Each structure stands twice: as C-alpha cells, then as structure tokens.
Amino acid sequence: MSGLAPNIFAASVSSASHALALAAPSLAHLGALDIAVIAIYFVMVIWIGFYLKGQANTSEEFFMAGREMTAWIAGLSFVSANLGSLELMGWAGSAYQYGILAAHWYWVGAIPAMLFLGMVMMPFYYVCKTHSVPGYLKLRYGQGASFVAAVSFAFMTVLMSGVNMFAMAVVMKVVLGWNLSFSIIVSSLAVAAYVALGGLRSAIFNEVLQFMLIWGGALLVPILGLVESGGWNGFKAKLAHNIATGLTPAGDYTHMWRSMGHFADNPMGIHWTGIVFGLGFAISFGYWTTDFLVVQRVLAANNLRSARMAPVIGSFFKMAVPFIVILPGLLGLVVLQNPDGSLMHLVPQNLATPESGLHSYNEVLPLMLVRYCSPGLLGLGITALIAGFMSGMAGNVSAFSAVWTYDIYQPMINKTAKDEHYVAVGRWATIWGVIISIGTAYLVMSMAGIMDYVQALFSFFISPLLGVVLVGMLWPRATKSGGFWGLLLGTLTSIGLWAWVKADPAALRYVALSPDARDMAENMYRALWSVIVSMGVNIIVSLFTKPKTLAELDGVVMGATKLPVEEPVPFYKNEWFWTVIAGVVFLALNIYFW
C-alpha cells in the first residue's frame, strides 16, 4: 500500500528524479527471452479486460464485479491491491537499512486489522450493501461526512496512482535503462484498457494473476539467497561476523521486539507503544478497515461468509510476504558484492549519485534479482515488479472510478440517470483517472519533496476516518453531528501536529513523548492522537445531540442490526476457525523473531 509506504522510499522518490537523469549504467540487459516474457504479460492483462467486457454491463457488474467473487479470489485481490511499487521496493530497502524491524508493517501492522475487518466490521459493510466506504458514512452519518470522505479519497487515489507510475518508471530506468515516459505511458495505457473494459472484475482477475507472478518471479531470490548464505543460521553467523569486523554497521537486524524498550535502542527511533498503538491500531486499522481501495475487493464477494473469509485468507499471504520482500533486503547485507569481490554497501538515496557509483537502499531488490536470475528468469522477475506496480495503479484507479460515480457524481450532479449512464461515467472516470495520474507522475518528477506531502495528506484523512467509522459502527448513540465534528477535528489535529513538527522539528519530542524519537515515530503518534481526538469528540458531541432510532440504524450499526444466519459448515470451512489459526501463526512469528 501505498498508504503504508516507508518514509525512506517515499521521501526519496522525488529526489530520485535528479539521480535518474542517470548517466549511471543500467543494472541489467534483457535478452530476447526476457522481453518475450514481459510482452506476453502485457498481452494477457489486456486480453483479460477484453474477455470480461461482456460481464461489465450494469453498474453492479462494473463497480462491484457483480458481487460474485469467491473468498479466495477476493482474498488474493485484497492483498494484491496492496502490493504496489512503494511496497515492494521500499520495504526491501528498509529491511537492508533497519533489519527485520521492517516486518512490523506486515505483521502487527496488518494482521490484527485484517482479522478485525473480516470478523467484526465486514458484516455491516456487506449487509448494508454499500458500494463504498463513503457510501457507508452516508448511511450512518448523512451526506456531509460522506462527501468530505469521498472528495479526499478521490484526490488521494489519483495522486497515489501517479506516484506508483513514477516509482515504476524509476525502477525500470535504474534496472533496464528504459525511458521514464515510455514506462509511464505503456503501463498506464495497459491499466486504462483492462479496467475501463472489464471494470472491477477485470481489475480483480488481473490482480490475482499479478499476485501469482509476483510470487513466481520473486520467490527464487530468497531461496537462492538462503542457499548461498547457508540457511537462516548461516546468514546470522555471516552477519554477526560482518558486524564484528566492522563491515556492517552495528545493530540488531534479526529481532523484532528486543530493541523496542526505548527510542534510542533501535535504528528507527521507535518505542513499542508506537508500534503497537500507533502502527498496530491507528495506522493499520485505518488503512485495512476504512481505505476503500482494499475494502472494495472484499465487498465484491459472493456472500457474507466469503466476505468474512477473504481478509482471513489474505492475512495468511500477508504474513508470508516478508519472505519475498524483507528477506531479500536482509540477505543483501551479506551476499551483495562489488565487481572486485568486496562487500557492497548500499547508501541513502541522496548519496547514490551517478558520480559516486554507489547504489541506494531502494535498489536492493533489483540488485538481488540481477544477482540470481538468468535470462528468462530475469524477465520473470522484472515482470513480477511490473505486475506489482500495475496492481497498485489499477487498485487506485478502479476505486477512484467507483467513488467518483457513486459518491460524488450521482448524489451531487445527476441523481436520476439510467444505470447504463453510470456505467459510462465509470468507464470515463477510469480513463480520466489514468490521465490525471499521468499528470501526477510528472508532477512528482518535477517537484522535489512532493512525496513528503503526499504521505502527510494520506495520513491526515485515514486515521480520523477510522475513529468516525469505528464509533459509528459499534455505538448506536453516535450522532450525525458527532461524526461530522469528530472527523473534522481529528483531521485538523493531524494537520496541526504535522505543521507543528514541520515548523519546529524539536516538537517531535512532544508529539511522540520522547526526545529520542525519530521521523518514523512521528507518523505513528500523530495518527494515534488524531484517532483519539476523532473518537473522543464524536462521543462527547453525540452525548449532547439527538441520536437516530435503532430502526433507522438497521443494517449499519452493531446492536441495531440483525445479521443473517449462516448455514452450518464443517469446521475447516468456518471463518472463525481460520481466524484462530491466523492468530496463532501471527503470535508464533512474533515470538520466534522476538
């Protein structure tokens, strides 16, 4: 997700435009077999769009895939839409820099929220038959809160789609020497074609294909890296030797919680309270339960049980993603070598200039691909990266199309049009969303520092939205006024804290409650404060204003909604059984890497 992208990658994307004037040579050259693999991939994704065009004739089919997706397809699409360019490249680089601490964003920063979405929130999203999260806000709080959420979400999705385009072009330039505009235009045309033709159904089926390709193309790197390192224990022994001899900066690269007791004890400058409450609750729950980009995939499920199972299925694959993202970054610490056989040292983006001949942290995954992949396999690996970038783009564009049509165009511009008119609006919104995204990609390229603002804007809206949705869904007493003021003041709190630290960096000690806190901690504590404010204001204002009756809240609030009774199934098909299994695996991973 783009929204959970690491700061080191996000902040460096703009400055990369300067580095990517790149007089530096590309890392690899594709053979005929590699080019054939990539060409086949592009033909397949566009063919899927053409093939599914006949199944996207009504608005329900175009925007919600006819609500016919099985739990497995919805679950894989749910995870794949999150595997964008910033996700793949950024976290591999973070793992090289910070060690296994980066896996927090995949485990505590994702799994509890995904399970909560499936077991607690999804029944209400699904039963009320909303087409979007802003649509849910309209049912719960009225048009005002829904419109604000829809506009901010539409703005953020096209912005992040453009960032994905530019990030992909950066990688193709670094790895293959491709022209930036060529990469942006080709990928955006392909995404526009298959989403505009087949709607959400086409996006979902392509995301499943892309998910398979990402795993197929990236799996060889950690496997061969572990073989070369002598397994996990061999890797740890080599890393310890490198640290002891001064080849690698000192630090605990293989444990997740031991150094979290104090801000100064770990390279991220984060305390465990920030990880658990800031990342694990405010940011993670905000993204996985209220960001329509991912929730839309689950809403397309064919029944309530599938809708609840989809995030649970996705959680298992999410827990496994560090194997192809975090592990290659860690292995890079011991296996990447310079041409003379010495250990390669990657550096921050601002130091990786063409003149220096150095590579940045963000290049660790392409470097590992080039190290282990022969012709044909390299093409598959590059295709995996392109698939990751395009799934992120398609996710943003398809979500933008639905929110624009259902939550902005229909209620504000044309309430009484025929169904086929809204399908046409959705197709045009897809095309315009891609065009705006292309413009955004060039904006990112030309304006240094814009990614900092994009990340900040994203955080302004997601965390307060969580507070409003959560209180509204779980507490019948919450009122229209409470929701509006909670969302407004929660957002202003986030903006205010960001501006305070921007104007006076020393203010971070007050936001994160420690003089040793670093940049990474700011986002977590700012998100936590904004959720607290949005929930607190919502509750206080609601206590002094008139609530809706329980009958008016039927279908959208716990305690006022009679959920449908599900048919009994064997235990191995029961969503609660797999939720418990996912929880046990999640705990086991954290204990093993404690």
TrEMBL record:
Keywords: Membrane, Signal, Transmembrane, Transmembrane helix. One of its GO terms (cellular component) is plasma membrane. Residues 1-19 form the signal peptide. The keyword Calcium does not apply. The chain crosses the membrane at residues 33-52, 72-93, 105-127, 147-170, 176-197, 209-227, 269-289, 309-336, 377-404, 424-444, 456-476, 482-501, 527-545, 576-593. It is found in: Membrane. This is Sodium:solute symporter family protein. The lineage of its organism: Bacteria, Pseudomonadati, Acidobacteriota, Terriglobia, Terriglobales.
